[in-house]
Amino acid sequence: MNDRILGIGAVVLAGVMFWQGVGLEAPFSYEPLGPRAFPLLIAAVMALCGIWLVVKGGGQTEPNPPGANVRIAAMFAIVVGYGLIYQSAGFIIATALMTMLVGKLFGGGWLKPAIGGVISSVFFFYLFDRVLDVVLPLGVLEAWL
Question: What UniProt keywords apply to this chain's record, in alphabetical order (predicted)?
Answer without folding.
Answer: Membrane, Transmembrane, Transmembrane helix
